[in-house]
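Predict the structure of Ribonuclease Z.
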Amino acid sequence: MNMEAFILGCGGMMPLPYRHLTSVLLRRDGDLFLFDGGEGTQVSLRRLNLKWKKINAIFVSHTHADHVTGLPGILMLSSQVDRTEPLYIFGPPKIAEYIETSRKVLDMYINYPIVVKEITEPGVVYEGDGFYIRSFPLEHTKTCVGYTLEELDRPGEFNPEEAEKLKIPKGPLWGKLQRGESVVNEDGIEIKPEQVVGKNRSGRKFSFVTDTMYLPSIAKEVKGSDLLICEGMFADGCEDQAKEKKHMTSRQAATIARDANVLRMGLIHYSPRYNDKELNVLLEQAQQVYPEARLTKDRMRIEIPYVE
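Done. Here is the predicted structure for Ribonuclease Z.
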């Protein structure tokens, strides 16, 4: 089952000609999940030629303009295709008012159900086949949340050679063992699943954190992520400004990645004061703490494979 993240925009505060505002699309096989929708989201989606009109759900960190101004266009363009499945939108208080006001003022024609759910406490907000998406609190100048998508454990790997040695004929009995059921072999001996199936294998974890001051508690929430997308808005020397605006430096983001023992971390939501060349300063400072840190860029694709 494939999983991949597409960086639709990596900028913060204001769009630049070469940098749209923060937005990430996560694709898990046929499911599509949008995390934030800053200005320019539609442009990147169309340039990537993704089937974005079938987005299952949108997860909004907070209702500052640089994270939601791309959403009205997404809602309107989604009406250009036949759709019966509802579009779910999750976010902190005010997201329902923003969506409803946008629909009313812009006189949107919407031919599919939109279900908006405001997050008032941390926990699971969305569940699917073999995974769930959970929210957790951040600290910004207004209510803000982070998200993780976590897959359930996968069954262990089936060993056909061992099954044959134990005289279990290939066919339905193999299927039962893989489903966790005991069977009887050709000699009438009971064979248990653990004799031919390995231990459960872990699923994958994707985490999205932006617009927050540094909190040691974030590391616990994103612990063990296969991919953490995390804001690293400022360079060293801007700690006071980051604290005042309740943002993070790239070094603080890297500290979270290190403490959470994540496999990979992509920095996002850069201050417009840094041009693309100057972003290398953010990267170098992050890698001093967490060597696997990387810069994200608009329309970058990041594969999230299973770790066996």
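The chain has ten helices and 16 strands.
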